[in-house]
Specification:
By secondary structure, this protein is α/β, with parallel strands linked by helices. It has two domains: 5-251 and 457-477, Aldehyde Dehydrogenase, Chain A, domain 1 (3-Layer(aba) Sandwich), CATH 3.40.605; 256-437, Aldehyde Dehydrogenase, Chain A, domain 2, CATH 3.40.309. 39% of the residues lie in helices and 21% in strands. It has 15 helices and 22 strands. It is globular and about 90 Å long. The mean pLDDT is 96. Bound molecules: nicotinamide-adenine-dinucleotide. Nicotinamide-adenine-dinucleotide is lined by residues 148-150, 152, 175, 177-178, 208-209, 212-213, 216, 227-229, 232, 235, 250-253, 284, 383, 385, 411.
C-alpha cells in the first residue's frame, strides 16, 4: 500500500522537502499510519519565505476590498468542501464527527468575518490644533507573516491567523501542526482554487524545533503569530523580539470554573464536563480547575461523577471525546496523573487508558477527576492539555476568587451563580482575558477578542477587530489645506 506524502506548499503548488525527509503521522484512534509529511528544515523555510516576500508587494498593493473578495472565494471553497475538511479533522485529530463539523463551521464563520473586513478596514479621522490640517490613520501590512499553530482545533487555528493576516495585506508562511498536516494542505489547495495569487499563502510542514524555529529566526518575517505552549512562546518572544518583529502569543491556560452555592447544579455539571473534557481536554480554554462552594461540594461532585461516567469515548457520531493527539501526549498525561497520586491526590474517576478492545490501541485517556491536591501540587499549577480536571472546595466567593487567581496563567474563567452581584464582582476581578457567567470556560466567537493575562500570552488579542492590530501597522497621514492658494472665480484668494 502506498502511503500518501504531504509536501510543503510554496508559491501556489506542492513542494517536496529538499532533503527528501519525511515524518510519520499516525491516526490517534487506532495508531494506524495515516500519511507522511515533510520534515522541513531551514532551507525549505527559506524557500517559503522567499516566495512570500516576492508575492507581498502586489498583494499589499491590492485594495482591501479586492483582497476581501478573493478571501470570500476561499470562504466559498471552505463551504463547498466543509465535509472533506471535517472528515480530515476527524481522522487526523480523532475528534468525533459532530465536533469536527462544528469546528469547521466555526472556522468558516471566522473566515467570512475577516473576508468582510476588506470593506471595513477602518482608520480614524483626527482633529488638529493647526488651522487647515486634517489627519487620518490607515492600516498598512507588516510584510511576511509567520504563523505557527497547534493541532487541537486545526482548521480553526489556521483560519484564526491566516484570514486576518491576509486581509491586512501580509503574505503568509504557515507552519502546520505536526499532528494535522493534511488539513493545512487542503486549506492551501482551497486558496489556490479561490484565485489567491501564488506565493501569498505558503505552508511548511515539519517539526517545531526545526521548521518552526527557522521561521521565527528568519529576519524577513516581520510578524510572528504563535499559538502553542508557554515555554515555546517565551522563546519566540525573545528571539523574534530581538529584531523587533511584531509578536502575538496565544499560550496555555489553567482555567478556573467556579460553582457557587446558589448555582443551578445540573447546568453547572453540564458546563463543567464540557469545559474539562470536550475535545479530550485539549483546549487552551479547558476548565481544568473546578472550584466548588463547600455547602454544595458533595452534591456537585456526585452529579459530575455521574455525568463523567456517562461520557462515551470514541470516534463515532455522538461520542463525547476522542483520543488525545499522540502517544507522547497520552503518556505524559498518564504520568502526570500518577505524580498527582503520589502528591496525595485522590483520583475519583479515570486516571488510566481505557482497556476496551476498540479503544486500547489508540491514544485515549479516560476522563479524570482528582481531588485533595494542594495548591503547590504540580497539577494545580501546570497545564496538562488532556481530559484531567482537579476539584477544590472553598468556603465563599473571596476564597474562590483567590484560588482562581492563584495561577501564572490568566486565559479564561467561568462562574456559575444566580446572583448578578456575585457574577459581576467575580468577572471584574478574576485574572483572565475572558470571563464567562453560567457558561463554559471556552466559547469565543469570531468578532470577540480572545487572549490571556500573565503566562497565557503577551497582551495581544485575536480574533475580533483586535486581530487587525496584530497584523497591521498604523500610519498617521496629515494634509495641510493651503487656503491662500485657492482663488475665487474673480481671481481673489479665498
Ligand atoms: P507546542 O508549543 O508544542 O506546539 C505548537 C506549535 O509550535 C506546533 O506547530 C509546533 O511544531 C511549533 N513549535 C514547537 N516548538 C517550536 C519552536 N521552537 N519554534 C517554533 N515553533 C515551534 O504546543 P502543542 O502541544 O502543539 O499545543 C498545546 C499548547 O497550545 C497548549 O499549551 C495550549 O494551551 C496552547 N494553545 C493555546 C491557544 C490559545 O489561543 N491561547 C489555543 C490552542 C492551544
Amino acid at each position: 500500500m502506498t502511503i500518501a506524502r504531504i509536501a510543503n506548499w510554496i508559491g501556489g503548488k506542492a513542494s517536496q522537502p529538499h532533503r527528501d525527509a519525511w515524518l510519520d503521522k499516525f491516526n490517534p484512534h487506532d495508531a494506524a499510519l495515516l500519511c507522511q509529511f515533510a520534515d522541513s528544515d531551514a532551507a525549505d523555510v527559506e524557500r517559503a519565505v522567499s516566495a512570500a516576500a516576492l508575492a507581498f508587494p502586489a498583494w499589499a498593493e491590492l485594495p482591501p476590498v479586492a483582497r476581501g473578495q478573493i478571501l470570500m472565494r476561499i470562504v466559498d471553497a471552505m463551504k463547498h468542501h466543509a465535509d472533506d475538511l471535517a472528515k480530515c479533522i476527524a481522522v487526523e485529530t480523532g475528534k468525533p464527527p459532530q465536533d469536527a463539523k462544528g469546528e469547521t463551521a466555526g472556522a468558516i464563520l471566522l473566515a467570512e468575518y475577516f473576508a468582510g473586513e476588506g470593506m471595513r478596514l477602518f482608520g480614524r479621522s483626527l482633529t488638529s490644533g493647526m488651522p487647515g490640517k486634517y489627519s487620518h490613520t490607515v492600516r498598512k501590512p507588516h510584510g511576511v507573516a509567520g504563523l505557527i499553530v497547534p493541532a487541537n482545533t486545526p482548521i480553526a487555528n489556521i483560519a484564526w491567523k491566516t484570514l486576518p493576516a491576509l486581509i491586512c495585506g501580509n503574505s503568509v508562511v504557515l507552519k502546520a501542526a505536526e499532528d494535522a498536516p493534511r488539513i493545512a494542505q487542503l486549506f492551501a489547495e482551497m486558496t489556490r482554487d479561490a484565485g489567491l495569487p501564488d506565493g501569498v499563502f505558503n505552508v511548511v510542514q515539519g517539526r517545531g524545533q526545526l521548521a518552526g524555529a527557522a521561521l521565527v529566526t528568519d529576519a524577513r518575517v516581520s510578524v510572528v503569530s504563535f499559538t502553542g505552549s508557554t515555554c515555546v512562546g517565551r522563546w519566540i518572544a525573545e528571539t523574534a523580539g530581538r529584531r523587533l518583529a511584531r509578536v502575538s502569543l496565544e499560550l496555555g491556560g489553567k482555567n478556573p470554573f467556579v460553582v457557587c452555592d446558589d448555582a443551578d447544579l445540573d447546568e453547572a455539571v453540564h458546563w463543567a464536563a464540557l469545559s474539562a473534557f470536550s475535545n479530550a481536554g485539549q483546549r487552551c480554554a479547558a476548565g481544568s480547575r473546578i472550584i466548588v462552594f463547600k455547602s454544595v461540594y458533595e452534591r456537585f461532585r456526585e452529579k459530575l461523577l455521574a455525568r463523567v461516567a456517562s461520557l462515551k469515548l470514541g470516534v463515532s457520531v455522538g461520542c463525547d471525546l476522542g483520543p488525545v493527539m499522540n502517544r507522547r501526549q497520552q503518556q505524559a498525561i498518564l504520568a502526570a496523573v500518577e505524580r498527582a497520586r503520589q502528591e496525595g491526590g485522590r483520583v475519583l474517576c479515570g486516571g488510566a487508558a481505557p482497556q476496551e478492545v476498540d479503544l486500547a490501541a489508540g491514544c485515549y485517556v479516560q476522563p479524570t477527576l482528582i481531588e485533595g491536591l494542594a495548591l503547590e501540587a504540580e497539577l494545580s499549577g501546570k497545564e496538562i492539555f488532556g481530559p484531567v480536571a482537579v476539584l477544590y472546595e472553598v468556603n465563599n466567593l473571596e476564597e474562590a476568587l483567590a484560588l482562581a487567581n492563584a495561577s501564572e496563567y490568566g486565559l479564561t474563567a467561568a462562574i456559575h451563580t444566580r446572583d448578578v452581584d456575585r457574577a459581576m464582582w467575580f468577572a471584574q476581578r478574576v485574572w483572565a482575558g475572558v470571563a464567562n457567567v453560567n457558561m463554559g470556560t471556552f466559547g469565543s466567537e469570531p468578532h470577540m477578542p480572545f487572549g490571556g493575562f500573565g503566562a497565557s500570552g503577551n497582551g495581544t488579542r485575536e480574533p475580533g477587530v483586535e486581530a487587525l492590530d496584530v497584523y497591521s501597522e498604523l500610519k498617521n497621514i496629515s494634509f495641510l489645506v493651503r487656503s491662500k492658494l485657492i482663488h475665487s472665480a474673480r481671481g481673489d484668494t479665498i
